[in-house]
């Protein structure tokens, strides 16, 4: 008998053309809960949650069984499948699925046909969906369906507008804007319909009212598309045909490749489509949750690639590593910084404070149609700062149900379950071919059952079956290892069984590299690092990595670095217990240290090198040619270097800890990464103390002091610097003593004691003159000159700075040259030589710009404006101060920025 079920109104069913009594509300809810997931198994646990909520009664399973029996007696076909039930009817038999099928056809059709199809789809609605049902699941599903309907209504309106209609839509849209007053898509349609109806004045009045309401209620202006449409109406544009999109000047395209093959997930894809359809002008967040290996990222990427045209302003992607086996998720601050770079933010104007960076990110994507994919999140806190403010769409994947994201940010919760048997079969067919599947039907059926519908497990098995081995042999192996833990939704204890078989199929070199990759510190690894880890030539390691990638055990990202799914990595770590990994990790450490040592010297040629152990014969460091190459290498390896510090701490290798801190020192300075600088040098200081190495302790105390000063902790800074000075004096480390005096010079200037600063500067200079290093002597000369100028000793100050400038230029130290030009400008200004001051300041600003030193550049720019003002050039001074105020704000230097505003006000 034919069965038809209606969900788009009161929940009813007709069997054989006659309406049947579906019984009490809970029994009707069972039918509805199965009907929304048509022909897909819904587990008993999930079904109970849908019917009773988070705390079902003790006899829920028995009661569900009773409800199912009664529905079957009515003629409804309900199959028992893998721990749950599935409703078995044709898609057309459920009005919701008929509705979605018609909408899908419309999106592939021309406008005339699309209008008819969408009209037919909307005609299926008979009122509020899931009528007569209560409970959290029904309420949430009802709200999603309402939004889905609104999206389709808007789609139909767009089609009708493209067909030239307008006046006939006014009445319909006037009711819709009352129901959805802040929906900018609906508003734009209403404005255009009014305009086409000859009611331009009414359209402009509605825009003014919407603008005022948005400002009052949301604190925002209408988006760019609505603003542009308003302008065209205002100007009487006769060519108005549809909405106008704005595009970003920099369009990021960060999505990894779409998964292939991709099967099933039709319901989830429809849910994501519905969320996007109702987006309007507000941010839409969909949180995809499920167990590891369930296919969350696959779903997100497949949907994203399928909807690329909906996001003309770009796509951002980050793996947050919330469930990384090394316990080091990516911080939201690091992810925000990556997004800022992808969006083309000027590095000179990126603020230091993480909260300010997050605010800048939201500003850059405001009113843009950007997709943000946040993969593998640990919790809501990791995600919150990565959420745009308006207009964008966000996909979040996590093993946890992100309750805070759902309740606090109105995220659409999308739980992801295992693949149904037909979908699992389709995946294997795509990978192995229809002939292989047809040749061993019993083995295929058992393979699917043993894998429990987990996409990752199915893909690994398919990869190993591709060599022609009989599927029955795979079944025997899998039966031996078992996947029983999949029944309760926790794959952690059973997916390793699949990995065990995969591992056994590897050659010895492949298996060895696979295990070593598991213990390598950091989230990923480059080819050169993997070669060092393995102690093999890069060309051989590249081939092995390609083979592991083909076996679905490693993945290569767009930057050419290799990583593992976290569950696979856990298994690799277990296999590494059978190996002596000490030598491999020592090789990788040597690779990091020797390459980093060379890079650090390129970033600051006058730094004193440190002694490293000889490079092993089978390790080849990266040959860095200049500071640009050094920065690029540090950028790629930074997370791994920080992880290497943690690993060295864990195994008690104190020498490596402080050596790694040394290699990272100038990179952290160049990138302005003050907090990591402080953390790493803090570890290095403790390590140096355990080593009882005075030289290492001096260096660590000095850099911990500098790092504390950079994060505005002056007392801690002074304490560490004086400890460094005392230890250097006691051990006769003259160069360290001089460097520490130099650091104290600037610390005392920060404290406002110029005389104490000058004393330390002269002490530094006196020592450096005995050491024979012109670059160090020049730095000390400039420091002495600066302090003397602040004390009014201008002739002495100029003499020191001119000597410093000569040495800097003779030895091509451009950093020092810029610093000294600034000092000379300061001296000229104080002595009334404002033309000379402008010349020196201008040269310093230009050189700082070439070096990317925006922190010093803005200080000099501020002083340049002072000299320009003194020369009676107010326009030039105003320009310089306005630029300085902007840069101060970007660097979170509020006091300096406010002082500049006072100077601008005084300028008039």
Automatic annotation (TrEMBL):
<dbReference type="InterPro" id="IPR019734">
    <property type="entry name" value="TPR_rpt"/>
</dbReference>
<dbReference type="GO" id="GO:0003677">
    <property type="term" value="F:DNA binding"/>
</dbReference>
<dbReference type="InterPro" id="IPR051677">
    <property type="entry name" value="AfsR-DnrI-RedD_regulator"/>
</dbReference>
<keyword id="KW-0805">Transcription regulation</keyword>
<dbReference type="InterPro" id="IPR005158">
    <property type="entry name" value="BTAD"/>
</dbReference>
<feature type="DNA-binding region" description="OmpR/PhoB-type">
    <location>
        <begin position="1"/>
        <end position="89"/>
    </location>
</feature>
<dbReference type="GO" id="GO:0006355">
    <property type="term" value="P:regulation of DNA-templated transcription"/>
</dbReference>
<dbReference type="GO" id="GO:0000160">
    <property type="term" value="P:phosphorelay signal transduction system"/>
</dbReference>
<protein>
    <submittedName>
        <fullName>Transcriptional regulator, SARP family</fullName>
    </submittedName>
</protein>
<dbReference type="InterPro" id="IPR036388">
    <property type="entry name" value="WH-like_DNA-bd_sf"/>
</dbReference>
<comment type="similarity">
    <text>Belongs to the AfsR/DnrI/RedD regulatory family.</text>
</comment>
<keyword id="KW-0804">Transcription</keyword>
<feature type="domain" description="OmpR/PhoB-type">
    <location>
        <begin position="1"/>
        <end position="89"/>
    </location>
</feature>
<dbReference type="Pfam" id="PF03704">
    <property type="entry name" value="BTAD"/>
</dbReference>
<dbReference type="InterPro" id="IPR027417">
    <property type="entry name" value="P-loop_NTPase"/>
</dbReference>
<dbReference type="InterPro" id="IPR016032">
    <property type="entry name" value="Sig_transdc_resp-reg_C-effctor"/>
</dbReference>
<dbReference type="InterPro" id="IPR011990">
    <property type="entry name" value="TPR-like_helical_dom_sf"/>
</dbReference>
<dbReference type="GO" id="GO:0043531">
    <property type="term" value="F:ADP binding"/>
</dbReference>
<dbReference type="InterPro" id="IPR001867">
    <property type="entry name" value="OmpR/PhoB-type_DNA-bd"/>
</dbReference>
<keyword id="KW-0238">DNA-binding</keyword>
<dbReference type="Pfam" id="PF13424">
    <property type="entry name" value="TPR_12"/>
</dbReference>
């Amino acid at each position: 008998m034919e069965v038809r079920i209606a969900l788009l109104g009161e929940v009813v069913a007709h069997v054989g053309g006659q309406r049947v009594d579906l019984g009490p509300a809970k029994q009707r809810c069972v039918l509805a809960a199965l009907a929304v997931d048509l022909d897909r198994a819904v587990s008993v646990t999930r079904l109970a949650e849908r019917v009773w909520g988070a705390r079902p009664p003790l006899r829920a399973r028995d009661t569900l069984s009773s409800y199912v029996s009664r529905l079957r007696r009515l003629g409804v076909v309900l199959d028992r499948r893998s721990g749950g039930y599935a409703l078995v009817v044709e898609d057309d038999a459920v009005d919701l699925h008929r509705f979605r099928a018609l909408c899908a056809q419309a999106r592939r059709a021309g406008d005339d046909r699309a209008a008819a199809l969408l009209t037919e789809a909307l005609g299926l609605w008979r009122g509020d969906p899931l009528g007569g049902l209560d409970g959290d699941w029904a309420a949430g599903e009802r709200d999603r369906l309402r939004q889905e309907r609104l999206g389709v209504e808007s789609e139909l309106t767009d089609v009708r507008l493209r067909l030239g209609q307008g006046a006939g839509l006014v009445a319909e849209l006037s009711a819709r804007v009352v129901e959805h007053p802040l929906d900018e898509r609906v508003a734009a349609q209403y404005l255009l319909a009014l305009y086409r109806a000859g009611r331009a004045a009414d359209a402009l009045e509605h825009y003014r009212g919407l603008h005022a309401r948005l400002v009052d209620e949301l604190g925002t202006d209408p988006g760019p598309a609505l603003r542009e449409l308003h302008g065209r109406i205002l100007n009487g544009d006769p060519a108005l045909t549809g909405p106008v999109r704005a595009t970003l000047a920099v369009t990021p395209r960060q999505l990894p490749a779409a998964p292939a093959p991709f099967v099933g997930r039709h319901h989830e894809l429809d849910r994501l489509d519905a969320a996007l359809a109702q987006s309007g002008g507000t941010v839409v967040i969909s949180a995809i949750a499920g167990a590891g290996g369930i296919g969350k990222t696959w779903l997100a990427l497949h949907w994203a690639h399928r909807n690329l045209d909906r996001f003309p302003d770009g796509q951002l992607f980050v793996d947050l590593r919330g469930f990384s086996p090394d316990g080091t998720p990516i911080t939201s601050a690091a992810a925000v910084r990556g997004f800022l770079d992808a969006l083309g933010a000027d590095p000179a104007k990126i603020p230091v404070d993480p909260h300010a960076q997050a605010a800048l990110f939201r500003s850059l994507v405001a009113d843009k149609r950007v997709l943000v994919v946040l993969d593998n999140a640990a919790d809501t806190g990791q995600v919150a700062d990565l959420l745009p403010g308006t207009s964008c769409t966000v996909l979040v994947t996590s093993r946890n149900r992100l309750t805070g994201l759902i309740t606090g940010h109105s995220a659409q919760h999308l739980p992801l379950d295992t693949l149904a048997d037909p979908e699992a079969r389709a995946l294997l067919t795509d990978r192995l071919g229809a002939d292989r599947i047809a040749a061993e039907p019993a083995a295929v059926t058992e393979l699917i059952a043993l894998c429990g519908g987990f996409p990752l497990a199915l893909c690994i098995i398919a990869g190993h079956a591709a060599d022609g081995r009989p599927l029955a042999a795979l079944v025997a192996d899998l039966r031996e290892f078992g996947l029983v833990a999949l029944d309760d939704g926790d794959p952690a204890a059973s997916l390793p069984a699949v990995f065990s078989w995969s591992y056994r199929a590897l050659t010895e070199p492949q298996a060895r590299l696979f295990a070593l990759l598991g213990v390598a510190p950091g989230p990923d690894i480059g080819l050169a690092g993997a070669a060092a880890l393995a102690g093999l030539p890069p060309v051989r390691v590249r081939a092995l990595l390609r083979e592991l990638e083909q076996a679905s055990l490693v993945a290569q990202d767009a930057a050419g670095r290799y990583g593992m799914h976290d569950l696979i990595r856990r298994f690799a770590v277990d296999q590494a217990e059978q190996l002596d990994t000490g030598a491999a990790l020592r090789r990788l450490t040597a690779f990091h240290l020797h390459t980093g040592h060379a890079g650090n010297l390129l970033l600051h040629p006058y730094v004193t090198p440190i002694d490293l152990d000889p490079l092993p014969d089978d390790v080849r460091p990266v040959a860095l040619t200049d500071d640009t190459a050094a920065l690029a290498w540090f950028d790629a390896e930074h997370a791994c270097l920080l992880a290497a510090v943690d690993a060295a701490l864990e195994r008690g290798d104190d020498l490596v800890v402080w050596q790694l801190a040394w290699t990272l020192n100038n990179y952290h300075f160049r990138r302005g990464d003050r907090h990591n600088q402080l953390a790493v040098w803090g570890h290095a200081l403790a390590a140096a103390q355990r080593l009882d190495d005075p030289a290492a302790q001096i260096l660590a105390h000095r850099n911990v002091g500098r790092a504390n000063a950079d994060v505005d902790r002056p007392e801690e800074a002074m304490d560490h610097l004086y400890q460094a000075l005392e230890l250097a004096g006691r051990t006769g480390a003259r160069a360290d003593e001089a460097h520490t005096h130099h650091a104290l010079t600037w610390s005392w200037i920060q404290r406002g004691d110029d005389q104490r600063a000058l004393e330390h500067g002269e002490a530094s200079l006196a020592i450096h003159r005995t050491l024979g290093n012109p670059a160090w002597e020049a730095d000390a000369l400039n420091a002495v000159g600066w302090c003397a100028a602040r004390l009014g000793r201008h002739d002495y100050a100029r003499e020191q700075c001119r000597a410093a400038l000569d040495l800097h230029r003779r030895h091509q130290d451009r950093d020092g040259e810029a610093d000294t030009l600034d000092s000379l400008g300061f001296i000229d200004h104080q002595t009334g030589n404002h033309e000379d001051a402008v010349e020196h300041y201008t040269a310093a600003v230009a050189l700082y710009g070439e070096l990317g030193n925006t922190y010093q550049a803005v200080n000099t720019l501020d002083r340049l404006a002072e000299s320009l003002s003194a020369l009676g050039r107010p326009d030039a001074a105003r320009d310089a101060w306005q630029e300085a105020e902007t840069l101060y704000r970007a660097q979170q230097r509020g006091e300096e920025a406010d002082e500049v505003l006072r100077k601008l006000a005084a300028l008039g």
